[in-house]
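User: quick one, sequence for these tokens?
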């Protein structure tokens, strides 16, 4: 089986590397010559635990290669996967499909012999049929099938998600294409991974529906956290109490500063527009988007209130700027709202993140970037924990107390126990739990 992966971004690079680890011959294509040169030299443009070692091993085994020549890759492929970007379109929230259709046209020109063209990118319902129309119009002689094969990769654990997924979804409409996709995912059949074959439209909708449901769980528990603060309850106990119900589940019930990243905000916005245009508007998803935007702004207010109602002239140390740990991704991160909100109120912000500072520098102007956690907190009036990186979970609390000008810690991820912080002489403010003082 020979695979051409069009796009060497996050989804394309992880998928190409993992398919090659399955034993297939994979060529990863990207139009950026600098990115291809870096990949050929073994340098990967994203931060994803375990990816560099896996990529290097499969390049050495000659199962994985990189090229700018899409025609060469497609000509040799049994399966061509479109894994190009679908960013939110300015003005209306729809997914921008220009890269998808550009890639489809280039694939059409290079097809030779029966080929399955699979969409990995997250695309609106109906895109698969439009891709088929574009290819057929451009190459009426071509033998091909278009399938939808959405990805469900989590940044920070993408390799495990690919190798041992909860499920594989394939939207397919011919027995021949289904047989090809079964062969492609045969290694997962061997470990009894559920593989769901559906129509094109159903597969495209599953991806959006899954992300919107998870985003809704986050928005819900954040609202419960606000209620807990008013009523004196503990949101973590509430989350555990409802999460033990098998109908609800414990995942994505962690209160925090709001969701971010490359998927949830973009996919929820696109889903809302799809639903609206289909005449079945989603009041729930629209509410989730509004609540999440308000949540990020409210967290800046929460920090200001913890600082006595003003941060003017004060120094705030921030640990973590990525939207989640184990990634360098700051897209739609709460930090992009919270840090500017503090600086607009007159605070000096000193920040540290284990992987995201290079990306964040271009987006967060005026921040003082530090080499480690303790440099950031030295002389600060408050310490804010914004991303739950593992190294922030075991801070030297005595050293933290000695470095801070005041004893205030605002933990927007609830990674510490209030009693522990109080015993360390720290005034501790968290999410959905009562504040504690020494």
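Assistant:
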């Amino acid at each position: 089986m020979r695979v051409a992966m069009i796009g060497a971004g996050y989804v394309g690079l992880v998928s190409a590397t993992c398919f090659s680890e399955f034993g297939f011959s994979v060529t990863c294509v990207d139009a950026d010559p600098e990115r291809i040169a870096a990949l050929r030299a073994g340098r990967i443009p994203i931060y994803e635990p375990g990816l560099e070692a896996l990529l290097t091993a499969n390049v050495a085994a000659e199962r994985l290669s990189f090229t700018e020549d899409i025609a060469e890759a497609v000509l040799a492929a049994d399966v061509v996967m479109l894994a190009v970007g679908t960013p939110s379109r300015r003005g209306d929230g729809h997914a921008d499909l220009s890269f998808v259709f550009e890639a489809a046209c280039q694939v059409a020109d290079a097809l030779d012999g029966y080929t399955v063209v699979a969409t990995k990118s997250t695309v609106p319902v109906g895109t698969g049929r439009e891709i088929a129309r574009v290819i057929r119009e451009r190459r009426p002689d071509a033998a091909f099938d278009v399938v939808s094969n959405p990805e469900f990769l989590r940044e920070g654990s993408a390799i495990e998600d690919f190798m041992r997924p909860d499920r594989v979804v394939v939207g397919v409409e011919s027995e021949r294409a289904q047989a090809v996709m079964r062969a492609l995912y045969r290694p997962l059949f061997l470990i009894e991974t559920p593989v769901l074959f559906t129509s094109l439209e159903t597969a495209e909708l599953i991806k959006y529906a899954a992300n919107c449901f998870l985003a809704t769980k986050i928005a819900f528990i954040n609202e419960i956290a606000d209620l807990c603060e008013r009523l004196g309850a503990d949101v973590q106990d509430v989350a555990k109490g409802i999460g033990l119900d098998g109908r609800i589940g414990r995942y994505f019930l962690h209160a925090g500063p709001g969701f971010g990243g490359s998927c949830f905000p973009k996919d929820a916005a696109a889903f809302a527009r799809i639903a609206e245009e289909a005449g079945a508007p989603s009041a729930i998803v629209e509410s989730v988007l509004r609540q999440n935007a308000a949540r990020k702004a409210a967290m800046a207010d929460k920090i200001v209130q913890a600082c006595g109602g003003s941060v003017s002239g004060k120094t705030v140390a921030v640990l973590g700027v990525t939207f989640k740990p184990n990634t360098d991704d700051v897209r739609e991160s709460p930090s992009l709202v919270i840090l500017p909100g503090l600086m607009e109120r007159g605070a000096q912000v000193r920040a540290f993140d284990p992987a995201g500072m290079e990306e964040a520098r271009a987006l967060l102007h005026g921040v003082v970037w530090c080499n480690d956690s303790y440099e950031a907190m030295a002389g600060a009036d408050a310490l804010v924990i914004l991303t739950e990186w593992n190294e922030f979970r075991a801070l030297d609390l005595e050293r933290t107390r000695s470095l801070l000008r005041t004893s205030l810690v605002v933990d927007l991820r609830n990674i510490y126990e209030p009693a522990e912080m109080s015993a360390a002489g720290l005034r501790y403010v968290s999410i959905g739990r009562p504040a504690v003082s020494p």
